[in-house]
Amino acid sequence: MQTRPTDYPRLPELAPRRLDEPAEEYGLRALAFVVTHSVTATVPTDALELATHTYRIAIDNRDLSQIALDRLAEVDRQINATLRTRSRLDATRETPGARQDDEQPAGGLKTRLEPRPNTQPPAPALARADFGF
């Protein structure tokens, strides 16, 4: 029996910014793209930055329902998480000789625990010799 590799569907991609398109419209289009498709991997970083900017303009609309506001807030958190991850990855690529994130703990659960050397001498009561003559 011959096995075939699994063909996964392509992720949707945001169309590039048009030359005559203002920044706010591009950011709003990027925000609408992420709301519709729930995908940030194929959206350029500048579009995500503009989308998080236009999010604040979009939630100012008083006609939005609470469900729509919650969905927009969820998308904004997703966009900001993607921007933080990309920023962290860019910082490690730009630093020559930098270690990977898993080798560089920042504290918390990922911190390596190293045993401390015992610096106290043994207690005098336990250090007596037992001689029998």
Explain what you see.
- The protein is an all-alpha fold and 133 residues long.
- The protein has a domain at 14-95.
- Helices cover 44% and strands 0% of the residues.
- It has helices spanning 23-37, 45-58, 66-94.
Topology:
Layout: H1 23-37, H2 45-58, H3 66-94
Helix pairs in contact: 1-2, 2-3
Protein traits:
mainly alpha; 3 helices; 133 residues
Q: Specify the overall morphology.
A: elongated
Evaluate the radius of gyration.
28 Å
Structural class: mainly alpha
Helix content: 40-55%
The SSE string, one letter per element, is HHH
Tell me briefly what this model is.
The protein is mainly alpha-helical. It is 44% helix and 0% strand.
